[in-house]
Amino acid sequence: MIRIIFVLSFFAFNLQSKGQSIENLVIKGNYQDQPLSLIFSDLQERYPVAFYYKDKWLPDKKFSIRISDETIDSAIPRLLAGTGLNYVIYLESIIVAPQNLLGQEFTQSYFMTKSKQQNLAQSQKWATASDIIMLGDTGKVDSKKEAVITGKITDQLTGEPLIGVNMFFEALESSATTDREGNFKIAIPTGLNLLQITYIGYETRKVLLRVFGDAQLLLELAPEAYELDEILITGETANDNVETVIMGITRLRPREIQELPVFLGEADVIKSLLTLPGVSTVGEGAGGFNVRGGSIDQNLILQDEALIFNSAHALGFFSIFNPDALREVTLYKGHIPAQYGGRLASVLDVKMKGHGAEKMTGSGGIGAVSSRLVLEGPVRFKNVETENSPKTTFLLGGRITYSDWVLQLINDPDIQNSSAFFYDFNVKFSHPYSDKGSVTAAYYQGYDKVQFSQDYGFSWKNGALSIIWNHLINQDLSSNFSVSYGNSENLSFQPSGIDAFNLTNGLENVRISQNFLYSGFSRHNLQAGGEYIRYYMKPDQLEPRLSGSGVISQQVDKDDGREMGLYLNDEYTINHLFSVSAGLRFNIFQQTGPGDVFLYQSGLPRSPDSIIDTIGYSQGEIVESFNTLEPRLSLKYSIDPVSSIKLSYNRMNQFIHLISNTTAAVPVDFWQVSGPYYSPQRSDNYSLGYYRNILDNIWETSLEIYYRDIHNQMEYKDLPELLLNDHLETELLAGIGKAYGAELYVRKKRGRLNGWLSYTYSRVFSRVDGPKPEDRINQGEWFPSTLDKPHNLNLVFNYNINKSNSFSANFTYNSGRPIAVPAANYYV
Q: What is the pTM for the complete model shown?
């Protein structure tokens, strides 16, 4: 990248400038053995003149000169004699450059004869550009040629890459967005181009590009600031909701999460998501979240490329994501690109901080029931790093709760004898080994323990380790490779008595992912890659908790599996009206041994009494295999610059199932892989949306309607025995489902008073119509799902009192859920 600010160009393009030429300005000075750069700096400080040049143009030697009351036009030629450099004076500016370049590009007549570009410049309001950047080799400029510009956009303060930044060229009616690592690529004509860069939560930046040829461009965006006189947020907000081809995508920045009302002093990612249309929960304090009628296991959750299977602390009162350590949270609930697979309803992609910190910083808080602390900064290696060398950075964060004192305030002996405790910590290191790549290692560990008096208790812990390698192979091709390992362990126990027991289960997984991004075509962004996941299910294991317990030890082994996927995704800008994101994903899933598969007598319902044979499988042997193909499509039609219509279709398959007879996750739940009696769940998702921004993007509105057709959905027989059951298939039923609804979203993004309204109308139905009466629910007719909550209304307000303080409030209204409670039961 070649970058230099030319104020001269700004004056030449804005003919209304009132500056005066400085040819006859009288200067003086005495310089002995000084480089040219210091001489120019001294003259700038003492006289109303500005020098512009590139450091590489200046000779690497020192100069001695005495200037005694001479004009600029007399002194500068003496100073530059014998250097091969010359200069041009225009208004109050002096450009110093090699003679051959000045003759070609930088004379006053060059600028003033560009009348066509000058008129175009006025129509494009180029005078609003904050700076002017040269790109490419000035000696090879060709006004008819297209130049390919590649680069990266980062946060000015932290150095973190910014995902989904909108880069808009008004005159060209074209735009580009940055990928998950902040990289972008776009082809634009050589010459003059005004680039407007917008991103939610950051100040809008306008840059005038003087493009001579292919080049790299590194840009920084400053976080959105406050204008103190009026206490208003400055800068325009991106119209990503209108411009992006992907529908149903929401990005949350840490500041947006922290501005919402908090529960017991703790900002929370999941509770922030619940204020958005289409996202709900089964009730207060329930773990996980539901998207468009999907169950909690139908959400793919990634934290720094590692799989997360339990997103909640304290049985749902807090999420596992430390708000001070967050970089960005992205939720896909409409169109899901082909690089994501394995779930039916949504993808939650969480990125933690830990990239590019220039200095040590810290943040944290002390709340009523928990405290947290996050430290971030560069790692210093003595005698290794120089000022310009890549810096290794780290993040260290932790949270801990001390909530038992709250329970002591409740006048109930059982509650006073109860306890609730959790902790978690994050560690992350990132090393950019060059300007082409970086290696990152991240680790998360969390632990919970909840006990109600001496009746029962739960504890669970989760760990996730990931290593990520990002590399820019060339200006057209970049790579993202990651390896992660996850381990979750669950414990349910009865603390005391003759029945005191420990019941454990869990899951281990290894995930390998490779993603390539190719942007060698002017209108295409291609992503291709593959994914491999290995699931190791830990057995259900029952043990006596105390020496005097009468519980007998038991163990039931679970099934293992492996999931493989290949995908190709293309975002294609057809023209300024139409854009499309089209993808295809091919999956292979295999249940593997060791394990036993029971065979049941034909014509009878599956039950322990109808088992007629058993087939044993050895370690690694394939028990059952499934192949699936998943087309993905999202289309955008731009009505005008502030409104668009989008539609999408996605086919998704899910190969692991959360087995639970509750609507909210609890530690006794466990995962079951697809196999002979558990077909993969499949969902066809359809969406249509209208998006419009009002009053210069101050107001953002959208209306989306959706329909989901679900197959092989897990349902349960009455009073199922799920734990310690080696023939689980006798308790499960396969059904179909459908979900449909509409989502309204109105948001005011700027001003002292801001916030949003979201309303969701949603219906969810299930149907189980097996061949035998025992295999049917509700006589085989459709019935409302336990997730059927027709109305969900959220109002969120935020009032900026001043730069450091704000007041926020929210209101939520939800419909109730259907519930069927047995009147009685008996055993024969």
A: 0.74
How far, in whole angstroms, is CA 122 from its chain's centroid?
38
Instruction: Look at residue 150 in the predicted model and tell me its pLDDT.
Output: 83
Residue ranges of E strands in 593-726: 595-600, 611-617, 622-640, 643-654, 656-659, 670-673, 681-694, 699-716
**By CB neighbour count within 10 A (0-12 exposed, 13-18 middle, 19+ buried), where does 279 fall?**
buried
| Token duo for residue 641 | 């610059």
What string of DSSP letters covers 165-230? -EEEETTTTEEEE--TTSEEEEEEESEEEEEEEE-TTB--EEEEEEE-S-EEEEEEEPBP-EETTT
Tokens 């199922």: give the residue: 720
Polymer length in residues for the chain: 828
CA distances to 484, 740, 791 from 447, rounded to whole Å, are: 19, 37, 35
Is the omega angle on the peptide bond into residue 432 within 30 degrees of 0, that is, cis?
A: no
Residue ranges of the chain with per-residue pLDDT less than 70: 1-21, 90-92, 100-130, 138-145, 157-158, 170-175, 200-201, 224-238, 261-265, 284-286, 356, 381-390, 662-665, 803
CB 312 within 8 A of CB 824: no
Nearest Cα neighbor of 617 from 563, 557, 682 is: 557
CA nearest to 298, candidates 665, 743, 727, 630: 665
Beta-sheet strands, E only, within 552-621: 554-556, 560-573, 578-592, 595-600, 611-617
Tell me what pLDDT residue 172 has.
Answer: 63
Q: What confidence score (pLDDT) does residue 390 get?
A: 61
CA–CA dist 59, 215 (Å, integer): 25
Q: Give which of 231, 222, 174, 226 is closest to 198, Cα–Cα.
A: 222
Of 368, 350, 335, give the one whose Cα is nearest residue 305: 350
